[in-house]
Each structure stands twice: as C-alpha cells, then as structure tokens.
Design brief:
4 helices; 0% strand; 128 residues; mainly alpha
Length: 128
C-alpha cells in the first residue's frame, strides 16, 4: 500500500507541474485571466494533495491497511475536484458544456476534507 500511495503522489505531483506549465504557457492566449486563475487553483490543490499523499505513504508509524481510506479519499478528491476545475476553466474551448457536471467539484472537495480528517485520526491513534 505504501508504494501505491507514494507512486500516486509522485504521478499527481508531476502532473500538477506539467498542467501548471501548460496553463501558464499553452492556455494564456486562449483563456481569460480569471479562467487561468481558476485552472491554477485546480493545479495548486492537486499539488497540495500530492504532497500529502507522499507524507501519508512515507509515514511508517501508521499501518498500511489504515491508510487505505486516506488514500482513496484523496485520490478520488483530486480527480473530482481538480479535474472538474480544469474542465470548467477550459469550458469555452470545447463543444461539451462542463457546467452540467459542476456539481462534482464540491463532492471532490468533501472527499479531500475527509482525507485530511481521516489522516488526522490515524496520526492521533498511531503516531506517538
């Protein structure tokens, strides 16, 4: 489990860097400044949670099976929150109206918060 958590954190972190560069250099001529800012919010939250995954995966005091809920909550939260923000920010570039799936952004946010809460509970229980 630790390896899976670490690899997922690495992939999400690297992808955040790539998406941030893409927003800064590839989308600046295509989107309005507020849309770029929205896209960058998704990148920032993705990176925060990628780093949290690296921390979770690296903590040896918490048994690997106890990390599963944290892992799945953060992974699903990143996918739903950040990736829906990317879609919403670039909505004007596509034929599909991503605003109809905008309800998944807050669901992703709830999953990210849940991941932090469960992680805090695991730390309080296992880290002495």
């Amino acid at each position: 489990m630790n390896r899976t958590i670490l690899v997922t954190g690495i992939v999400f972190g690297g992808l955040a860097v790539a998406l941030g560069a893409f927003a800064a250099h590839g989308l600046e001529a295509l989107l309005e400044p507020d849309q770029i800012e929205t896209f960058e919010t998704g990148v920032r939250y993705q990176m925060y949670h990628a780093l949290l995954l690296l921390l979770v995966g690296g903590l040896q005091q918490i048994p690997a099976p106890q990390k599963k809920w944290v892992y799945w909550s953060l992974t699903a939260g990143i996918l739903l929150f950040s990736f829906s923000i990317y879609a919403l920010a670039t909505n004007t570039l596509t034929a599909f109206d991503f605003k109809v799936i905008g309800f998944i952004t807050p669901l992703g946010g709830v999953l990210l918060i849940s991941g932090w809460v469960v992680f805090a509970l695991r730390v309080m229980r296992y880290v002495k």
